[in-house]
Amino acid sequence: MAGKQEVEIFISDDGELKVHIRGIKGPSCVDVLEKLAGDGEIKEKVLSSEYYETVKEAPKTRIKKQ
What we know:
There is one protein chain. By secondary structure, the protein is an alpha+beta fold. The protein has one domain. The protein is 15% helix and 18% strand. It has one helix at 28-37; strands at residues 6-11, 17-22. It is elongated and about 60 Å long.
């Protein structure tokens, strides 16, 4: 894991949740949000600049057969 990942959840008096996700680059942050929401309705998504950052994949290791 390259950096710190955070999920902040704010609950209003009427039960509405606001979720701030930090440290997760690319569209995988939306996957985290959808898992947290479960069957609940997502009324609005505000995407941060991290959403638009590209995720570097680890180089693939090749194993030579002998």
